[in-house]
Amino acid sequence: MKGILITVRTGSTRLPKKALLKINGKTTIEHLIDRVKRSVLADKIILCTTTLEEDDVLYRIAQNNNIEYFRGSVEDKLERWKGACEKFNIEFFVTADGDDLFCEPELIDNAFKQYNTENVDYIECNGIICGAFTNGITYKSLKKVCEIKDKSDTEMFWPYFTESGLFNIQQLKNVPYEYKRLDIRMTLDYEDDFKFFKKIIEYFGSKQFGLLDIISYINNNPNVAKINLHLHKQWSDNQKNKINKLIKT
Length: 249
Known about the structure:
Layout: E1 2-7, E2 22-23, E3 26-27, H1 28-36, E4 44-50, H2 56-64, E5 68-72, H3 77-88, E6 92-97, H4 105-117, E7 122-124, E8 135-138, H5 139-148, H6 159-162, E9 169-171, H7 191-204, H8 211-220, H9 222-226, H10 232-248
Parallel strand pairs: 1-4, 1-6, 4-5, 7-9
Antiparallel strand pairs: 2-3, 6-8, 7-8
Helix pairs in contact: 3-5
């Protein structure tokens, strides 16, 4: 069975309770749920959150939006994913980070197709718009990583896959060249990121829109990309610093 695992918790620090901020009457996490529901190849959509009482609101959102949920470790997202895979019999999943409201269902389905035809453990997609796609992972490789990892804080998890030499790593195939843009940032970490998402969602209103629609709108309104692009180096440096600490240990 193939799944989409939405990883989210309310305990954000840079932008408090960002998953519950509202745009057009819906929480940001509900905008992401709506988006990944457009995948045609996913067998299950599972919201993965923690056992903390403060995250009760998230499992209720999952229920209200007719998707599955799993509650697990507070720090260890890998163990959370493992538990979800075991509960729902998932053999391959695509991650949809709760920050990535515009995660593209076309790319998610591309990952499912690639898994169906290739002997792959882990799929990544470098060089595309930040927030358009994260990872595709087999349960088998995830289980192995959970056996060898030496930390419970696995926010920066991917070096366990990409740097260990244990797995078949592939780049996502059949990615439209239009998506290979490094001048657009689509992840929710700061107040200006929220302003960026709000601007686009309010522009399209109730109309369904895809990544090409977003790109077209930004091409015609370049100042929209500038709302939060200045944050990307700060965000990227923070990610690299955490990865370096992980690799050194």
